[in-house]
């Protein structure tokens, strides 16, 4: 018989697992990993909101995508265009970034799988006498290691020609040059830290769902068990 068991700790772990998976996925897909050096706008370019000249803009560069401004010859304005600069995996600007993409993709796939499974832990707490919480926690720890490898290798690619075109001639491995780090990089780091927190917290979720109070509720014949 299926017993739906909901506790504060198990629900918090489930929510964190989902948030972490989405945060890493959004960061990976974003082009805001590097913010390039400011490029001055022409005095003829007009800001539609203020009516004055546009401020200098800073293009952004991701692992496989970028955002830049394109000119409209018939209008005195520019529009920001975002999209992948690499049409396939081999066109990613650096071998280090290719490795980063692989490690991050593996880690994110594991996190998404755990996030999906975590929703069903309210009803199924074990498989083949193994606690789902403990298995998911182990997988989250493994995913965190892949994410760390990807984030360590990513700065090694700052010396590639693509990064230099955005960050200036002084950019090199682990040196930003004229660039700065974008929100996507910080989000990926924050998501990695939360991944390990989730891995540790999964043990608390397992303890909460197998506590004496839960067992008492099951013995009383209750199918829906909610404990604070």
TrEMBL record:
Keyword Transmembrane listed? The answer is: yes
Q: Which membrane topology term applies here?
A: Multi-pass membrane protein
Query: What keywords are annotated for this sequence in UniProt?
Result: Fertilization, Membrane, Transmembrane, Transmembrane helix
Tell me, what is an example of a GO biological process annotation in this record?
A: single fertilization
**Where does the source fall among the domains of life?**
Eukaryota
Q: Which GO terms describe its cellular component?
A: membrane
As for subcellular location, the record says: Membrane
Which InterPro entries does the record associate with it? LHFPL
Its signal peptide is none
Could you list the residue ranges that cross the membrane?
12-35, 96-120, 132-154, 183-203
According to its UniProt record, where is this protein mainly located? membrane
Q: Does the keyword Methyltransferase apply?
A: no
Cross-referenced Pfam families: L_HMGIC_fpl
Query: Which family does the record claim for this protein?
Result: Belongs to the LHFP family.
Protein name listed in UniProt: LHPL2 protein
Its encoding gene is what?
Lhfpl2
